């Protein structure tokens, strides 16, 4: 057992090794590059399964930690280490399973891309960075891998850098995340200054006995800035929809198991800090709930299949963050796990459609895909049912636990908001399905089913989307909640009424989408006209991007004008002023050069007298 746990470092190391080998030696052999990348993740998955078996065979508080001193200086010591506990084990499984299936799927999706080898190199460093983040045992180490996740996402989002939209999206993601990361880094520095350590275990004990409420609020809010950026919470959400410019398998990885999951994982890992500040917990819950509703409302009217899924991810991330904020850490992590499987399924199925339709992404230019692409269609339907929270699929168990936690913890408004989001989620997902897969448009005539290398991962993920939720259900004695817990975390008792209500809301959303887009009992164009400005507001995403662009432009322009004035008036003024003063002094002194010896003698005597007076003043000052 100990030998297996001691090999935990191999899990993130192998993808980094694959990245280095592909980049340095194997980039001319695309198939070997892909095989090496897939092998590195496959070995990581096997080790993750073995580690999980050990962890979950033990008690709920099982922990394995090892660290080495990397830097030792007076007043500062830096450790590097590994932490294996139930939270780590779950994340290792989620990341390696999804990453492996995405990489296998990519063999078909990216097979004729000229950057095939580079793509797998970037996939390797992306997965390795996320796995390194998961096993880290301190905030300093997690920040290093946190930044590597951001860097590798930049490379993958901008993979097709020949398109301006891809380059712009990559820069937007990178810059937006730096805003949140700045706050995160400040929070880490405060932890080091105040507590003298960044180790999770040591901090847990130190924070528990710390009594300065203001400091805890400040530090926890700064730390939360990181997840706001990385998990695309309002107002730093704008990068995630544009990240769709990358290859679709990249979207599946970013939206399911890596980048956006990192923020939620950080909140769970540092839950002992956030939970020590009720004020911060309330802020987290409100931001999460608002993001869930905000993003779901935008998804209602989008027409791009990937953008619908992107705003769905934003909304579901809001669910997870809201769960953390109401104290239900286990519920948030449970939803992260189930969401990883059905959302990666949805993105990969969408990629299958896009691949078959020559990169078409507008759902209104698709139709009748269920006849030409049955595997893609029905796996997509399974993913949508899981996302909508239809029992007994995985999303039903995790979503209901979040809603129940919100209500049982006294946050009735957040429960109502979450229930509304559940209805909206079912509606916009089945709007997509009834238009793109079962609609009577002619856009899908040239479609064909994807090859087995792409459909087999869909089938595996569909199975996981069905059964993964059972680990947190009463059928397995809520095993997930038993293992994923912290002191102070909230675990509500089952409530069948809440389950029934949320299921009915999801069914109502599906029925409404069926009535409008399949049966056409209601003319959708008339609805758009009646909605008027509201439809345009939702379609243009509340004009948030335009507002940010206006603010940035005016801020930059205003700053530029201020710098111009400072340069001309202050810097140039000082330089030119010195030159002017020197010139005028020269002109003035020129008149003293009159060629009269008696004048020079007068100036000399005057100077001597002045020096004597100065000397006498100095002497008297010393004697006094």
UniProtKB/TrEMBL annotation:
Subcellular location: Endomembrane system; Membrane
Origin superkingdom: Bacteria
Topology class, membrane: Multi-pass membrane protein
Gene Ontology cellular component list: endomembrane system; membrane
Protein keywords: Membrane, Transmembrane, Transmembrane helix
Pfam families: Proton_antipo_M, Proton_antipo_N
Domain NADH:quinone oxidoreductase/Mrp antiporter transmembrane: 136-425
Record-annotated membrane-spanning stretches: 6-26, 38-62, 82-107, 119-136, 142-161, 182-201, 207-229, 250-274, 280-301, 308-334, 340-358, 378-398, 413-439, 451-476, 496-517, 600-623
Major place of residence: membrane
Gene3D superfamilies: 1.20.5.2700
GO process annotations (BP): ATP synthesis coupled electron transport; electron transport coupled proton transport
All copies of domain NADH-Ubiquinone oxidoreductase (complex I) chain 5 N-terminal, residue ranges: 70-120
Record-level Gene Ontology MF annotations: NADH dehydrogenase (ubiquinone) activity; NADH dehydrogenase activity
PANTHER family on file: NADH-UBIQUINONE OXIDOREDUCTASE CHAIN 5
Family: Belongs to the CPA3 antiporters (TC 2.A.63) subunit A family.
Name of the protein in question: NADH-plastoquinone oxidoreductase, chain 5
